Amino acid sequence: MKNVTIKTQPYDDQRPGTSGLRKKVKVFQTPHYLENFVQAIFDTQSDLKGGTLVLGGDGRYYNRDAIQIILRIAAANGVSRVLVGCGGLLSTPAASCIIRKYKTDGGIILSASHNPGGPDEDFGIKFNTPNGGPAPEAVTEAIYRRTKEIAEYRILETPPIDLDTLGETRLGETRVEIIDSVKDYADLMMELFDFNRIRMLFESGVFTMRFDAMHAVTGPYATEILEVRLGAAPGTVINGTPSTDFGGGHPDPNLVHAHQLVEFTQGANAVNFAAASDGDGDRNMILGRNFFVTPSDSLAVMVANAHLIKGYSAGINGVARSMPTSQAADRVAEKLGLPCFETPTGWKFFGNLLDDRKITLCGEESFGTGSDHIREKDGLWAVLFWLNMLAVKQQSVEKIVTDHWKAFGRNYYTRYDYEAIDKADAEALMDSLREKLAQLPGQTLDGYSVEYADDFAYTDPVDGSRSERQGIRVGFAGGSRIVFRLSGTGTEGATLRVYLEAYESDPSKQMQATEAAMTDLVDIALKLAEIEQRTGRTKPSVIT
Ligand code: G16
């Protein structure tokens, strides 16, 4: 076993996106590619020397190889202790929980989230800071700057270690502890939710649910929490064994990719409640019998009902949502007199607000909800929040949501994604929209009068940092809105996202199909951004 220094050359494409560095597996397998990025983390995060690091991932292809490489680089860089999830598995929320619980100096999480896995698919790596949250931009930019000048990395020459047996090993001077991936996280959930009450719901015999782990990391977590600790019937968790290619599927919990789950909510034997999570366990989709809850509505309903939930019954400090998320939560916050924040897309932007106790709950349209219990969005947490709410209210998902609309109004919501379009075309489309912004206010587009149009910019109220060009917003009189932005998580070309929101306060008009309620706004968006002419696409790749 000896430390060696390897000469390397910088790669110029290692700038982290919305959530860490995501690339094709083949790119990560290029000689020194992963090593350079990891060394840049150690070069810029000086507390890791002599400190404790948490390490794990979603189990996708290359997870285990990457963990062995990172362990050897960590050892050569003087990390004193590394906590590794058994089998190399840690869901993103569990990693956040462990970073915080053991007061470590940060964590490295390996995941490309909802993107497919396998030798020709995606891989990703991100660094989380000691608060358990994704590194803020100042940190990711420092890491990126380092990758551009890196000339060497340090690594311990040693064979791979056993990742599947709990206990301690030594790598040079570094203590490596293989820890239970599930226990700490499951214990935290028991502090936040009324497990007795939820258990009674399952024992009532009239309540059934399915949780789709999508062959990804939440399988073991959901099985332990739902079936073992809460007594849900065996078989409640489907696709519960993590696989390196997610069973050949796309571990993205939406109506398109989780269609197997959707079928459980339809027909004569439909379950009362269904939910799914993504590759790394931080996203969630909530379904009732024949009923889909949009992530934006889910956040709003949670804010309105937080007082019923054990861990939040003392009151919440405030709420935040990412800019493209519908304004449903704002309406609840306004009625309850709670502060409400609009942040750029990216969970990292909630970190300061949570640390500073300005907010307790937060969420995003991209199937993410969470709270101050950790610093990541949390799929199973959202499922348990809903289960706890259902157990207390003894109503169906549909009744809870439709009553919510009656009280606060409905924000019809849909998102059109145009994936893998040409990068230059996508940027030209956004630039052309930017040029139109100044003339839009006051204009009427297909009967909708534009109240404001801007390129969203955010000043963090805690540290004053400024983030610009975060997406084009076009707001109409009456509360409807169109947002255009380019995704920061894709690995091929560019992905244009078009977010559409139509507000309806009249209860007699709240039960339309979303598609029907959105036709006008869709037309306006297509014309305004000249989508077909500029991208050549006649329809989106995915509608959620
Ligand atoms: C990440 C971020 C989220 C963001 C989502 C989509 O989630 O943490 O904040 O909403 O990507 O981002 P984009 O629209 O830029 O593709 P995840 O679940 O992929 O880590």
Total count of helical runs of at least 4 residues? 17
Tell me the major beta sheet.
7 strands, mixed
Bound molecules: 1,6-di-O-phosphono-alpha-D-glucopyranose
Assigned CATH superfamily of the largest domain: Alpha-D-Glucose-1,6-Bisphosphate, subunit A, domain 3
**CATH architecture label name of the largest domain:** 3-Layer(aba) Sandwich
Arithmetic mean of pLDDT = 96
Strand order of the largest sheet: 2-6-5-3-4-9-8
Low-confidence stretches: none
Predict the CATH topology of the largest domain: Alpha-D-Glucose-1,6-Bisphosphate, Chain A, domain 3
Overall domain count: 3
Shape: globular
Q: Bin the strand percentage.
A: 25-35%
| Whole-angstrom Rg | 23 Å
Helix content: 25-40%
Query: How far is it from the N-terminal to the C-terminal residue, by CA?
Result: 51 Å
What would CATH call the class of the largest domain?
Alpha Beta
Walk me through what this model shows.
The structure is a single chain. This protein has a seven-stranded mixed beta sheet with strand order 2-6-5-3-4-9-8, with helices on both faces. Strands 20-21-24-25-26-19-27 form a seven-stranded antiparallel beta sheet. A five-stranded mixed beta sheet has the order 11-10-12-13-14. It is 32% helix and 25% strand. It has three domains: 2-181, Alpha-D-Glucose-1,6-Bisphosphate, Chain A, domain 3 (3-Layer(aba) Sandwich), CATH 3.40.120.10; 185-408, Alpha-D-Glucose-1,6-Bisphosphate, Chain A, domain 3; 410-543, 2-Layer Sandwich (TATA-Binding Protein), CATH 3.30.310.50. It is globular. By secondary structure, it is an alpha/beta fold. A hairpin with a 7-residue loop joins β25 (481-486) and β26 (494-504). It binds 1,6-di-O-phosphono-alpha-D-glucopyranose. 1,6-di-O-phosphono-alpha-D-glucopyranose (G16) binds at residues 18-19, 113-114, 282-283, 322, 345-347, 364, 366, 368, 487-489, 497.
